[in-house]
Design a protein that fits this description.
mainly alpha; two-stranded antiparallel ribbon; single chain; 10% strand; 3 helices
Length: 80
């Protein structure tokens, strides 16, 4: 049973880290652009942040302020 509980604990830790990362990204984007993006529309994989179901004008504003947004993510310097 210990193996199963350890497995589920690892899954829970991974899920918690991902939610914290996505929430952090959401808050930083909102801080710089005042655009509120649901965390369900933010994905992070292979050091790349993808924003889904966002209108083009919001994406343009985020792209313009991309450098400031990325500067606020010092822990995740490999994010593009």
């Amino acid at each position: 049973m210990f193996g199963i509980s350890g497995f589920f604990k690892n899954i829970q830790n991974t899920f918690t880290k991902e939610v914290v990362l996505r929430t952090t990204i959401k808050n930083i984007i909102k801080k710089h652009t005042e655009i509120d993006i649901p965390i369900e529309n933010i994905t992070y994989r292979n050091s790349i942040i993808n924003l889904k179901n966002i209108n083009s004008s919001a994406l343009s504003v985020i792209f313009i302020k991309k450098t400031k947004i990325l500067e606020d993510l010092p822990k995740f310097q490999d994010i593009r």
